[in-house]
Amino acid sequence: MARAPKSMPRQVGAVSADDFRVAMRQVASPVAIITTAHGGQRAGLTATAICSATTDPPTILVCVNQSARTEAVIAASGRMVVNFLTEDQHEIARLFSTSKIDTEKRFSAGEWIEVATGAPVLKGSLASFDCVVESVTLCGTHSVYLGRVEALESNDGSPLLYRDGYFRRLGTHF
């Protein structure tokens, strides 16, 4: 169980990384597999720090830890696919969430197709966005990518969410 975060600090810079992490774990986020390919090498990881940046032109913001092998492949290729997962794809999310599992074993789960750039797209995902990297900004431990969407596919389904350290499904609507 998460511990309660501290109350609002009175001075700037008083927020610890732990307090920030605890507070952010309370916010439900969609789960996506970020994939790419370069030089015949596929790479991918599970991510939750993703959002639309603008609709004109269609652009997605993705945050990737700089220590992840996939980050280097995105940087080299200048391409990425954001595959938002359905609740039925939680096992695929688990496979891509650890570096302990071999890349090809990760891609053995689910059905993957390659777009013209060679980047893998997960069939049956809630939505997949094939992007060209427009810009990247370093922010602490992460690279913040803006990807211009060049192609997309969307399907019906219930989104996979991540909150408080667990994958979750969407509940009742109001």
UniProtKB/TrEMBL annotation:
Entry's Gene Ontology molecular function annotations: FMN binding; riboflavin reductase (NADPH) activity
Domain Flavin reductase like as annotated: residue spans: 24-169
Highest taxon of the lineage: Bacteria
Keywords for the protein's UniProt record, in alphabetical order: Oxidoreductase
A matching Pfam family: Flavin_Reduct
InterPro entries reported in the protein's UniProt record: Flavin_Rdtase-like_dom (IPR002563), NADH-dep_flavin_reductase (IPR050268), Split_barrel_FMN-bd (IPR012349)
Protein name: Flavin reductase (DIM6/NTAB) family NADH-FMN oxidoreductase RutF
Taxonomic source organism: Microvirga lupini
